[in-house]
Amino acid sequence: MSLAEVRNLPLREKLQILEAIWEDLGARVDQMELSPADRTLLDSRIERVRNGETKIHDWDAVKHSLGRQ
Fold first, then answer.
1. Number of domains the chain is built from
2. What is the pTM (predicted TM-score) of this model?
3. Can you tell me the distance from the alpha carbon of 65 to that of 59, in angstroms, rounded to the nearest whole number?
């Protein structure tokens, strides 16, 4: 499926594809290497969550809110 075809899909189908990709990436996370810039960015974001500067949103809640749009 091309990117153009994905862009034309309904939101629900896009979310299903996104979930499948995310699950696949999660299964391969141990094989991935982060660049120093990516590591710095992730460390910064983790620190912001720990300090209470930002919060993490539950994926199921996000999906639910997107489904109502």
1. 1
2. 0.47
3. 10
